Amino acid sequence: MGSGIERLQRLGREGRALPSILSADFAALAASIRPLLDAGSQVLHVDVMDGHFVPNITFGPPVVRSVRAHTDAFLDTHLMVTDPLTYMEPFAKAGSDLCTIHAEVGIAPEAARAEADRLGVGLGVAIRPSTGLDAVVEAWARHVDLILVMSVEPGFGGQSFRPEAVERLARTKEICWRQGVAPILEVDGGIDRETAPGVVAAGARWLVAGSAIFRASDPVAAYHALREIASI
After folding, report:
1. Active site residue 97
2. Which of 66, 120, 134, 159 could be bridged to 3 by S-S, CB 3.0 to 4.6 A?
3. In this structure, what CATH number is given to the domain that contains residue 21?
4. 89-107: per-residue pLDDT in tens?
């Protein structure tokens, strides 16, 4: 399949809807994601929570390894953990293609980039809504492949979208443009057919959606609707 960095380059710059498996049926995970993969989804979003950085606990590397056994989709792994440099390697070995770490944990961008390059995975940085945006983006933009602007506080699925995320995405895009870099802008939290157009207009290219897809009466139709909006 190649390294995560190579796979990310092959995906290109097109807008995408990313099913977040946090909202899938854990007792039938492969069966939950298969219809979406068959419908054309090339990227799955994996939310990893350690019970420390956020109060919830979700997946470890064994779950990623199990998902990887069922698909060659790009696995976009969001590490909501206090010690991401410890966990990047086991997740990379399990099949993660890109690891996004939180700016709030205090890791130096250069150290995170060096570890991602050593492992052959892409690197993202996530910013929670309560974190000052400009300083984080200015420090990280040159070192990452992706910037995740959270539109809810991390830790639980099914939260309501925070409208200020639209302005924060636009500001992120502006700072990156000034630095002459163009990481993928991703948004996660409360994304559905109503909130998606605004974030796309602000610059988001990857739209993470959990409840809006997996809890829809027709998950495939919901995925197609979001993908169409993301592709505008």
Report:
1. no
2. 120
3. 3.20.20.70
4. 999 999 999 999 999 999 9
